[in-house]
Amino acid sequence: MLSYRHGFHAGNHADIFKHLTLMLITQSLCKKEKPFCYFDTHAGAALYSLDDEWALQTGEADKGIKKMLELSAGDKIQTTAGNELILPYISYCKKLYDEAVQYPGSPAIVSHFARRGDQLVLMELHNTEIERLRANAEILKKENAADIHVHHRNGFEGLISMTPPKPPLPARGFVLIDPSYETDSDYNDVAETVLAVNKKWSTGIICIWYPLIQNRSAEIEKLKASVIYRDIKTLNAELCVSKPKERGLYGSGMLIINPPWQLSDKLRQILPQLVQILGEQGEGSFSVEATEDEPSSN
Ligand code: SAM
Fold first, then answer.
1. What pTM value is reported for the model?
2. What is the Cα–Cα distance from 83 to 273, expressed in whole angstroms?
3. Whose CB has fewer CB within 10 Å in the chain, the N or C terminal residue?
C-alpha cells in the first residue's frame, strides 16, 4: 500500500536541487545531435498544483520554489556564474507558476529541455498518481517535442527489464531513481537495481536521489557505500538547508553514476547559490565529491 504523495512536497529544497541537476544533465546530452532516452523509475504526477490543499498544508514550496521565484522577480538573485546556470530552470518554473500556479516534476523538467527524437519512459506504481501522470503527459506532449511513454508498473523491475535500451529507444541516456523511501526495502532495491543496470548498460548515466534524515543515516551510508566503489565513475553531491535535526528532512543528495563531463564544476557553481537562497538561519551547506572528471562517451 503506497501512501506517499509527492504533491505535499513539490517545489521544496530537495526538488529544486534534484530538478536543477536533471536539467544540467539533459542540457549536456543535448550537446550531441544523437537522441537520448530518459527512464524515470518513480515519475510521480509530473505537474503539481502549488495552491491546492496538499501544497498549502505543508507550505514546503513557500520556503522553496516560491521563495526562489520571489527573489528572482525582485532581482535579488544576482547574475553570477552559478545563477546563469540556474536561470533556464527559474524561467520554466516562472512560466508554469504564472500560467497555472503549478510546479514541474522530474518528467516535466526533462521533457521541457529535451528535443524531437529524445524519448522519455515514465514509470509510476500508484493507482491514482498514474492517472494524473497520464493526463499530464498529454499536456507535456503538446507543449514539447520529445516522445513520452507512460508505464503503470514497478520502476525497479521496469528499469532492469528495459535496459540496456533497445531500438526504437536510443542507446544513450540517463535514469532517475527517486523513490519515496517510505519502505525500508527501498534502500536495498535502489542499490540492487543500480548495480544490475550498470552491469548491463555500463555507459548509462544513473541518478539516485536520497533524503538526508537523521534517523535514516545508517541506511543512507549503506546505500552510498554499495554504489560508490573504484570501478564505477561517480559524483555525489549534497545540499543541506539546516544542520541535522531530530525530525524531518534537512537536506538531500544526488548520487550520479557516469556523470556527464563538467557536471561537478557546474554543481560547485550552483550549490553555493542554493545554500544562500534556501538555507535556514544561515545554516545551509553543500558538498560535491567526484571520483574523476574527464570527457566521457555519454
Ligand atoms: N520523481 C518525481 C519528481 O521528482 O517529480 C517524484 C517522485 S516521488 C518522490 C515517488 C513516486 O514513486 C510516488 O509517486 C510513488 O507513488 C511512486 N512509487 C512508489 N513505489 C514505486 C515503485 N516501486 N515503482 C514505481 N513508482 C513507485
1. 0.96
2. 7
3. N
Whether 175 is in a domain gets the answer: yes
Residue 223 sits at φ, ψ, to 5 deg, of -60, -45
Q: Enter the C-alpha cell of residue 76.
A: 535579488
Amino acid at 120: L
Residue 12 falls inside a structural domain: yes
Domain extent, residue 258, equals 6-289
- Domains held by the chain: number: 1
The finding on whether 6 has its CB within 6 A of some atom of ligand 1 is yes
- Give, for ligand 1, the residue of 38, 42, 130, 177 to mutate: max count of ligand atoms closer than 8 Å to Cβ: 42
Alpha-helical (H) ranges within the chain are 13-29, 53-58, 65-73, 81-100, 106-113, 129-143, 155-162, 185-200, 217-227, 263-278
Q: For residue 147, which phi and psi values (nearest 5 degrees)?
A: -80, 145
The rounded distance, in Å, linking the Cα atoms of 123 and 7 is 17
Residue 74 forms part of a structural domain:
yes
* Residues with active-site annotation: 178
Residue 68 identity (one-letter amino acid):
M
| Inside any domain, residue 1 | no
